[in-house]
Structures are given as C-alpha cells and as structure tokens.
Design a protein that fits this description.
heterotrimer, A alpha+beta, B alpha+beta, C alpha+beta, B: alpha+beta, five-stranded mixed sheet, 5 helices, 5 strands, C: alpha+beta, seven-stranded mixed sheet, 22 helices, 23% strand
Chain lengths: 81, 164, 770
Amino acid sequence: MAKVIFSSQLQRYTDGVRELEVAASKYQDLVAELSQRFPAMTTAVIDKYAIAIDGVINQMPLLARFDHDSELVFIARIAGG
Amino acid sequence: MSTQKKTHVSTTINGEPCEFLCEPQQILSDVLRTNLNMTGTKEGCTTGDCGACSVILDGALVCSCLVLAVEAENRSIETIEGIAEDGKLHPIQQKLLEHAALQCGICTPGVVIASKVLLEKNPDPSEEQVRYWLAGNLCRCTGYDKIIRAVLDAGAVMRGEARS
Amino acid sequence: MNQQVKPVKTDFKYVGTRPIRPDGPDKVTGRAKYGADLNLPGMLFGHIVRSPHAHARIKSIDFTEALKLPGVLATMCADDLPDPGDRILPGAEIEMKLKDISPIIMARDKVLFHAQAVAAVAATSASLAAEAAKLVRVEYEVLPHVLDVHAAMRDDAPLLHNDMFTQGMNPPPTTPSNLSVDFTMDMGDLAAGFAEADVVVERTYRVPMCHQGYIEPHAAVARTDGNGRVEIWCCTQGHFMVRSMTAEITGIELGKIKVIASEIGGGFGGKTTVYGEPVAAVLALKSGRPVKIVMSREEVFRATGPVSSAETRVRIGAKNDGTITAIETDILMESGAYSSSPIMPSTMFAAACYRCANMRSRGREVLTNKAKVWAYRAPGAPQSIMAVECAINEVAERLGMDPIDLRLKNAVEEGDVPLFGLPFLAIGLKKALQEAKNHPHYRAPLQANQGRGVAAAFWINAGMQSSATINVAADGSLHVLTGNPDIGGSRASMALLAAEVLGIPVETVHPSVVDTDSVGYCDTTGGSRTTLATGGAVIQAAEMLVAELCKRAAAIWNVNFDDVEWSDGKAIARIGADLENLMEGTAAAASAPKVLTLAELAAMAGATGGPLCAVATLHAHNAQPAFAVNICDAAVDRETGKVDILRYTCIQDAGKAVHPAYVEGQMQGGAVQGIGWALNEEYIYNEKGELDNAGFLDYRIPVASDLPMIDTVIVEVPNPLHPFGIRGVGEVPICPPMPAVVTAVNQAAGVRVCDLPLTPPKLLAAIDAA
C-alpha cells in the first residue's frame, strides 16, 4: 500500500490525519479514494497541488502511477521567475 | 506637435553622409532606430540614466537620447554599427565575447561605445578607472565583473601587450 | 516510482567547455534584434492611457476627441476583450484566474492602482499616439485607497475586491477583506523545541518592494494577415506563454496566433507574463495595420509587476552546542492590487537549508492599491531567507560559534525531510559550505569599520514541458531548434549538449530559438529550467538521431544494428571482432572497423530513408534543488553612512555546469541584484499612491563603480535524476546576498538595522543612536 503524507495545511481537510495508506496505484484512483475517505478533500482542493512520488515532483499527474511502497506527498504549486 | 513640418538634417554617420527628415522634438536615438533602421543603439530609459543609447558625437561620448536629432546637423556620429571594421571585430567586441561578458546583450552596444572612448583617451586604465568610466552603463545581468575584465583585456591588446 | 534511473554521465568532452556563444557576434555588433527593434511598413504606434488614480470606478471612456486627430486609426478598452468571468488560465504553472490577469491588460469597471491601463490608441507616429492618448476622456469616481499592508488589514480599510475571501483559512471567512491568503505549515512541536533551546533569537526584518530592473522595456509588434491570423513579435521569457495568454485575454483563437520571440534584454521573472502584446494584437486587428507598443521606462516601473515586499518575524532556538531546536517564521507579504504574490514558496522555503524537527511557518498575503506584483528570481524566497539567515548569524554570534560551522552542523543532507515534505536526494549544501569555509576570502583579515556576512540559501528549481527538434543538413551540420528565449546564454548550452551526444565539434551545431509554429510547446525560460528541461529534450533528440544514424549505417553495411556503435561523430561497426576468436587467420582482414562520419551519412540521407530529423518532447520531472552560499565583506563610512562592498564570493552547486562561464554569470548577476536590494533599491510611493522614483536615476540599481569583482566557485553534486546531472542555476543566486550584505554591514557599523534597504540615512541614524 502506497503511503500518502499530508502537510499541516492539508490536514485541515483530513481531520488531522497525517499519514494514510492507500490501495490506489494510479493517480486518478488516488484522487477518488481520497475524496471518498475525506469528503472535504474535493478534486478542486487536490488540483491546487502537485504531487511528489518518492521525492520526484509531478505537476500534471493525470497518468501517474506508483508502487506499493511509494511515498506520496502533495506539494503546493509554485512558480519560478 | 505632430502637425509641424519635419526638419531636414544632413549629417555623417559611421563615416558616411546621411540625410533624414525628423520631427523637431525627436531625439537622436529614436531617429537612428526608427527613421534610419539602425537599431544597434538601444533605448533603456530615454532619460540619459542607463547608457544603452551611447553613441560618439564629434568624438565625445553622449547619450543619444539626450541629443535632439536636429543637433546632428553637420556633425559626425559613430554608432555600434560602425565599430567593427570590414567585418573584423574591434578588440573590445572580441574580448567581451571571450570573457562571456554579456548575457542578454542589451547593454552591450553601449558598453562597447563607452569603452572605445575610454581606451582611446586612456589606453592603460586601472580597474577603478574602468569602473567609474562605465558607471553610466547600467547592466542588470552580469554584475559587471566579466565586462571589466574584458575591457582591461581589450586595453592590453590595443597597447600591443597581449594577443588579440 | 522507485524508478531505475540511467547512471548520470560524468565524463564530458564538450559540456563544461567555454566556447563563444553563437549569438554573441550579433550582440556585440548591434545586429541582434530585440523587442523594439522591428519596424514594418505601414506600422502604427500604440500608446496606452493610464489611470491617474490609485483606486477608482471607471464611469465612461470617450475616444471622440482623440479620433478627430488625422492618423489616429484605432482605439481599444476593456469592451474589446471578453469578460474573464471565472476562467482559469489553462496549462499555467500555478492556478491563475483570468480576472486577475485581464484587468492588468485593460482595466474593467475599476482601476486598482495608479497607472493601470485603461484604454489604448494606435496612430501613425509615436508622438501622434501620445497626443491622442491625452485626448481620451476617462471619467472616474475616485475611491479611497490603501498603501500599507497593516492599514489594509484593518476592518475599516478600503476594500479592493468584494469577492476576496481569505484563502487558506478553514472555514473561509464570510466577510471579504484585503487579506487574500493566510496559511500555516508546521511539523514537530514548536513549543517543545523552544523549551529545549539555550538561546532564542527573535527579530523582524523588512524587505522592500522593488523591481526586476531589466534594461529593456517591454515591446511588441503585432500584425495580421488576410486569414485573420495574428503574428506577434515581442521580447518575452516565453512566447508560448504569450500565445496562450493573448488567446485567453483577447478571445482570438489560440491556433490563429503565432508568436516570434525577439532577443530579450533581461527579464528575471518580470517578462513571464504579458502587458502590451494583447493590446497590440487587438489594435492590429482593428486597424488592419501592424502596431508597435513599446513601454517607456516610467511605464515599466509604474505599471508592470514589481516584486513583493515582506515583513518577516523569525524566531530560532538553539542549544549551546549549536543544534537548532526550533524555527518559526511569520511572513507578511504585499501583493499589490491582485492576489499574485509568491507567499507560498516564501513560507515553504524560508528555512529549507536546516534540519530541524520543530518548525512552523505562517504566510499572509495582503492587497494594497499598488501595481500587481509579479515574479523575480526565486520568487518569495529571498524575502524570507533574508530573515532566517540573519537570525542564524545572530544565533552564531550569541553562541560564540563560527557562522559556517553552525550551518554545517545543521545543514540538510540526503534523506532529510524539510517543512514542505519532500525528502532531499543528493544535494550540495554541505559541500558548498565547506568550500566557503576553505576559501581564502573567509580567512582574509578585516579592518576597523569592516564586517563580514555569510548566508546560505535554497531554491527548488522547476521542470515543466519542453520540445526540441534537430535537423541534420547534408554537410553533417546540426540545426537545433528550441522554443525557449535565450536570456543568459542557453543557446550555447543547447549546442554543447547536442555536440556532446553526437560527438561533433560544437561549431558545427547551430542552435536557434524558433517561433510557436516551428517547434513543439515549450514552457517559459524561467524557474531555472531551461538547461535542465529544454536541454533534456535536446539530449533526447540527439540520442534519437544517434540511434537513427546507427540504423542507417547498419543498413548500408548490411550488419546488425547492435553491431554498430556511435563515437566521436562516427558510426563504427566492429564486425569480425568476435569472429577473431573463431577463425584464425581471418582476424586481420575481419577486424578492421567500418566507419561512416555524420557528414557521410547525412549526404546519403535521401538514399537511406529520407531526411534526418529528430523531435523530442518531454515533461521534466527530474528537476532538483540548488543550494548557494555567499560571503560578503563590507565597510561603512561612519560619517556618511556609505557602504562599500569590499569583497564578494559566491559558491553554488550547479550539478553539472554545461557552460561554466554562463553559470558564473548567473551567480554574479544574482548576487549584484541582491546587493542592490539590500543597499539601495526600493519602491517609494507618495500618499496618492504614485511611485516617486519611476526611473533609473532615483531607482538606483548597482553600477560598475559600486562593486568589486565577484568571485565564483562552482560545486558539482550531480542531479541524480538527470542524464547529465544538470541542476537549475539561474534563481538561487539572488537568495543569499541580502542576508550576507546586511550581516556584513551591520557588523561593520556596530548596529542592527532590520529594515531594508540599508541606505546611508538609515545607517547614519542607527550609528548615531548607538
């Protein structure tokens, strides 16, 4: 089961849950699983973030896949200059 | 203002006779760039603060944005387009390239012009002298380090002390 | 994915050398064409009408008098643009609401800052357009304005947007305000961390609003063709961005817009958006003539996107042995009139250099009636890192510890997890700190009234999307086409990368930045991504070419593809090398390798399958952070308050420096921008909300006589995810200089001024008070 780690910002939508093991192995399934588990965590909320899979940031993760031992961290999108 | 008759000006640019029509209030940098399509001279501010529009007017270093185009009558102007002779780069131009002393390059024509006037007046300037001479040429990309090194190096070449 | 990454290349023949950049000769001779350098037959000149008020409702716009002037051929205002509604700009780096972008191009209903664009005219000469602009009658209902973030947060403050409900608060407030963002990130137990500290330092530092200060004002020329297609020539950090923004703002179909990037005279983040381009496009469509719009220097300062100011309260706790036990930052950032500030990265990255289990960082963004802010190098990071680094230096002082040793003790390494949650892979912070410690600058003695400051910093670096096309000409020369405007020598790097893969002299590789029709999509030149991502696409395209060339050689020689290798610009088949072992006596004849050069294969392209061309596109997920350390020596004249920067050294991890001279250039340029921001640069507003110093005379950027040589040391800890180990280098250089300079100056003067810039009057007042 891949592990999702929620920052303190996102913990507002997860009722304080900091870490969660998820059954999903594809990003789209992950989004569905999270919004089902945490109704406040809508797609609109999730879309504001990029996702880092094992430390590698993916800003358009529509087709992203991950392993059963992957660590997933949502990171706010930022822009360079 | 815009309905005033244009003024006819006869001048010399990079050694060649040149005539143009301009509005009386038009600045020289604008005439060079718009009327004569000589866009090598750049405009960063049009208030004489940045040096990007530097040209040589009767041997003196000036900001062409502070010169009315009509003042060019019967005078002699050198611009960046005339610095390389017969396709051969001037030592200042060559050294700026070798030292990677330009990033965006917008200040570069002004730096070339200003440095040329310096090295012709003072063939062996100190680092401090180069820095103060070029204080009127703003650069936002390089931090000036490589530009100063290039100009000092070009001076050595022009004095015959170094290979070009 | 626990992905298997190819081993990073470490031996290079061309990468790491310093050839003269291919676009260099044109730049030193004035031949290179920048945004304002294009003149077309029949061209009109556009001029923008700007608001004289900092906050007002637009009641009416009347062009009648302006149109009476002969030669005034088109006008426009927000009525010519579609209503932005709630549309989000598709494909942007971060979420951008069109209603925060469109009004910057042309104000709609309200103006929210002095000099905001309200209307535009196009006429047959620049002077005529300026005259006509003065005749455009705009009626305003003036509203009260607010210019200070603290005043803007009060309940009775003038409200800029009645639909602004603070983001980041849960639940969001029910009353609108000028507090656009308020969020907090934390990890560990801050209270416990401070409880175990022997020393606690708490300060508030103010960094002013400033400007990126590029020397070239924004300029664009737009023209249409008979098909209603619009072609825009402009100076920009991203012509694909110009295409999509112009389409969204004007309603012109994306596919009908072609953008050509001119050479660009500086950007530093300020040219990653549009200002005049959509206006020129609309005026060109309305008039049927090409339209040129060039901003004046004054317009650039007043009405483009300045850099957010910030007030950062920092609190750091440490044990006597130097272990940092708690770090707290509270950043209050000014965004101008629309929510646009980099409060997110500012909050996330403030203490990214330090391993500390207990951290909290709060970020608030506040709106004021000033121009909407935009990006600078490493947006947001310099402002908050400024406070943290100064506080770390103060902790070192209090502990009697060397400031580099304190940093070495707490510096993040591979495996450490920062506040934003991403564990670090291999990084170069400790190596850079060690280089700083061993550098002769650090050991040089100081005299009276002199001080030394050290600072470390981080920037995350972006990846994003890039494309590259490589065509091989019949003589074996390469044309490398990419879509990233060259702001700092990237074309030279593209050539080096292609030369490296093909094993050919870099002089035979011709790199170009081509228009939006001629290469695949490329995200902007910014975010320290061009060498990594666009270079990555060039590497991929070059590798595809090598595979194709080997395939063709194999076909010519009638051998297996696997028997052909590519080396130093040649296809080589070592057929018979294995036969040597089987058939004695045949070794000599059989082992002579077959060779075909790139030029020979190129000449045979038609006969072997057709033109040789490779196209690569990618979405780079392999960007990795950069760390930098700066050392600054400064002297202060106690009579005048003048600061002299005596010596400056920059150390930075570049992963792999493709063209080291241009990496050095980024380091030096960023350092000097930081020096300027620390000592001189700030936006000064009067009480009407007008910028008092809207020119280079009074907005004083560093000049050549202000500075010494800037020494550079490039450290290379390869990016483990990139085939050549490349890390972005363009932005992190601006992150360490402010704290390095401020620490040095305060030390030299024996004061602790926390309010930047450290101008002579401020220093003198502090010296006199001390």
